[in-house]
Amino acid sequence: MADRPVPAAVEPVLPKADADGANYGTADALPSKNDENKDGDTRASISAISSEEAAVAAGLQQLEARNVHWYSYLLTLDFWAVIAVGQILSLCITGSNTFTTELAIVGTNIPAFQTLFNYALLTLIYLPISLYNHGVKGWLKIVVRDGWKYFILSFLDVEGNYFTVLAYKYTNILSAQLLNFWAIVCVVVLSFLFLRVRYRIVQILGILLCCGGMGVLLASDHINGTNGGPAVDKVKGDLFGLLGATFYGISNVFEEWFVSKRPVYEVLSFLGIFGICINGVQASIFDRHSFQGATWNGKVAGWLVGYTLCLTLFYSLAPLILRMGSAAVFDVNLLTANFWGVIIGTRVFGYSVHWMYPIAFVLIICGMVVYFLAGSILGDSKKPWLGDNQKDGVAGIGTAKLKALNEARKRGLVAREQSQGQDRV
């Protein structure tokens, strides 16, 4: 590589929306001025926006003009960050599954209710940040304009969680895990049709290699008899699992689209708010009887806290991998959750590790490496639906737009003080 990649700068918080709400959360938002200087401020804003667009264009040109090799992206900080964050997310999923299993063992089966705490914590963390940066008036304008979109995102997420958990009640774990592959299929198809993502042959091969690793993992579980077993109603369970995987796939693609265009704190705050409403209604309807017969003691409270913290960390980190990678990379990374689940299960539930498990894990990681072979130095962070020079995107952590701005600053193509105020979380 001719140049080493420049790590993304730590971004300041988004400035508050202006009086007419036109600036909220967009990539080209600028701080408002005094009303008496409105005409002059408008010209200055247009000039600043043009300067930012020119800086992004120059930065992207510099990044993409580097003398790269087929392995160049594998040597970047971004690639290893995607792998590391992906494994943290897998561990979060493993932790939440472990706490759910502990709750089920003592008879506390309340899947909708226990997830309600996660959405509440997301709201407590990210709503104040969103209100501070947008202002109450600006935030209300977002609700009117985009509230229905965030409601759909939350609905998809809640139903994905609910039906996947419900599937385990009727079918065996082996079948439920096999159906999770459908989420990857949904992501690839939806990204191709609606987000104009065009996958290269090497990327398809990488995804298939990851799925092959997951197949080895499931085969070893079936051989050991640890992941199969009888099913109460296999057809019904498989249908619920298929429905849950479909909701997951659609919500992952939708969230990738959102976090590439809007600040993360805005997306997560609305996901929490609408998640509380939707999940609360479901819990009151479907978990009412289970709630009354559940076991309640100190251990149960601790498991609920652990489950909530794992899931909240998962939701907080997911936008980063969706920006730096893609929804497909996100779902493929999560295939390693089963591996970590068995490792933790050996200590908690007395599972035994089959000799095929390390092979499965290596295959999944190798699939991730193959996915990024011969790709752009920007990986999947440059989104095709954001237009030329990513003009419709937010300059947030992990985005190609921020990387381009950092590159332009490094090479002196834009004054740091001129563009620094336009970074977005």
What key attributes describe this structure?
15 helices; single chain; transmembrane helix; mainly alpha; disordered C terminus; 425 residues; SLC35_F1/F2/F6
The tally of helices reads 15
| Overall shape | globular
Low-confidence stretches: 1-36, 41-46, 416-423
What is the gyration radius calculated from CA atoms? 23 Å
Mean pLDDT over all positions: 78
Strand content: under 5%
- How many extended strands? 0
The succession of helices and strands, N to C, reads HHHHHHHHHHHHHHH
Q: Give the termini separation.
A: 29 Å
State the helical fraction. 55-70%
What is the strand and helix layout of this fold?
Blueprint: H1 38-64, H2 77-105, H3 111-170, H4 173-179, H5 181-194, H6 201-224, H7 234-261, H8 264-286, H9 288-292, H10 298-324, H11 327-333, H12 337-348, H13 356-371, H14 400-410, H15 416-419
Helix pairs in contact: 1-14, 2-10, 2-12, 3-7, 3-8, 3-10, 4-7, 5-7, 5-11, 6-13, 7-11
Please explain how this structure is put together.
Belongs to the SLC35F solute transporter family. GO terms for molecular function: transmembrane transporter activity. The chain crosses the membrane at residues 70-96, 116-136, 174-194, 201-219, 239-258, 265-285, 300-322, 329-349, 355-374. It is found in: Membrane. Residues 33-42 have a biased composition (Basic and acidic residues). This protein is mainly α and 425 residues long. The chain folds into two domains: 35-67 and 388-418, no CATH class; 72-371, no CATH class. It contains 15 helices and no strands.
